[in-house]
Design a protein that fits this description.
361 residues; alpha/beta; Rossmann fold; four-stranded antiparallel β-sheet; four-stranded parallel β-sheet; disordered N terminus
């Protein structure tokens, strides 16, 4: 089994996030940052700094492992927005879509928005999903984005549908007191990593090798990782009434069943005709060809920030195949992922199938 290249964090200086902000802003930071070694930044083709983010005090939600050792890898562009996100004003009737990256987030957003908005298919086709359901911390992905995504989420009428890739302990603190509904989507990390590789090539401009990216993913260096702690936090919360845990694989296998479960979870009714329409609307071919679901505005923001064209990544919805890693990932890397998964799950006596087959109802 390949050894992780992650170095002990204490070798790197801890920089309080508030010290990196403008004077007078957020003087009492909730998080601090440890710089990631340059060779890892270079390997990921990141311009600027990259850090592991830690909490300064015990999170308001229980997390797996020792909270003081828990970190989230993020480009330094995220640091000015983390306290803003943490202090975001949550509403009790919010619905949140939370996932690790490339786990069917867009698919779940579109499904849930339509359920919450009386199956308004015309609006779903005409208005960009990023406006209907903001990606809360997107200001951290692109700091000079034309519109402030946190402010956009603040201004949405209720019930709001909000997307985040942050781990449980980095989400707004009011999430755990006001208890809005949270839909968490799991995906086999081998497929998620392959999808993320293509995402980084198209949207970040990654020019490195696929194998280097896979190793960075396993080592937890890419944005919003490490993967398994992110998943396990929500897995241990799955029986809470405000948490709905499902998987990309289950959505592919029984989309109608997942839709009916989400309707039950949200207290919404779905008629047979609406169910059929929604299943058709959410089909891969329809999603792939729907500009409103392909994050056009996010592309425009990232292209403007990078000062370049996006060459190969014209569609956010790419393949949508369960098991896509099998024809894109060398067998040696597949084995590394399997060993890494086993190492992370053995103490919990869990397997991939426990997540992909789980049903709340």
């Amino acid at each position: 089994m390949r050894q992780s290249s992650r170095t002990v964090h204490s070798e790197y200086s801890k920089v309080r996030i508030s010290e990196r902000l403008e004077p007078g802003n957020m003087p009492n930071a909730t998080f601090y940052a440890e710089s990631v070694p340059f060779e890892q930044i270079e390997k990921l083709a990141i311009s600027g700094g990259y850090s592991s983010i830690y909490a300064t005090s015990k999170p308001s939600v229980d997390v797996v492992g020792n909270w003081q050792n828990r970190y989230c890898s993020l480009a330094d562009t995220f640091q000015p927005v983390l306290d803003r996100v943490y202090n975001f004003d949550v509403r009790e009737d919010d619905v949140w879509i939370v996932t690790s990256t490339k786990c069917g987030t867009t698919w779940a957003q579109e499904m849930t928005w339509l359920i919450l908005n009386d199956f308004d298919f015309e609006k779903a086709k005409s208005e960009d999903l990023t406006l209907r359901s903001p990606f809360l911390e997107f200001n951290g992905v692109v700091p000079n984005v034309p519109h402030d995504t946190i402010e956009a989420a603040n201004n949405l009428p209720s019930p709001r549908l909000i997307k985040s890739h942050l781990p449980a302990w980095l989400l707004p603190k009011q999430v755990w007191t006001k208890k809005p509904k949270i839909i968490y989507i799991f995906r086999n990390p081998k497929d998620a990593a392959i999808s993320y590789f293509h995402h980084w090539r198209g949207m970040v401009g990654y020019k490195g090798t696929k194998q280097d990216f896979m190793h960075s993913y396993i080592d937890g260096y890419v944005n919003f990782n490490p993967f398994w702690p992110h998943v396990l936090d929500f897995w241990q919360l799955r029986n809470q009434p405000e948490i709905f845990f499902t998987s990309y694989e289950r959505m592919k296998r029984d989309l109608a069943g997942v839709i009916k479960d989400v309707c039950k979870f949200l207290g919404r009714e779905v008629k047979d005709e609406q169910l059929s329409q929604l299943v058709a609307h959410l089909s891969f071919d329809k999603m792939k060809d729907n500009p409103a679901c392909n994050h056009v505005k996010e592309f425009e923001s990232m292209k403007a920030a990078a000062g370049r064209e996006v060459d190969e990544f014209s569609r956010f919805v790419r393949r949508g195949i369960v098991g896509s890693h099998k024809d894109e990932m060398p067998q040696s890397v597949i084995q590394e992922f399997d060993d890494w998964t086993e190492d992370n799950l053995k103490d919990y006596q869990l397997t991939i199938e426990d997540f992909t087959n789980y049903s709340k109802y």
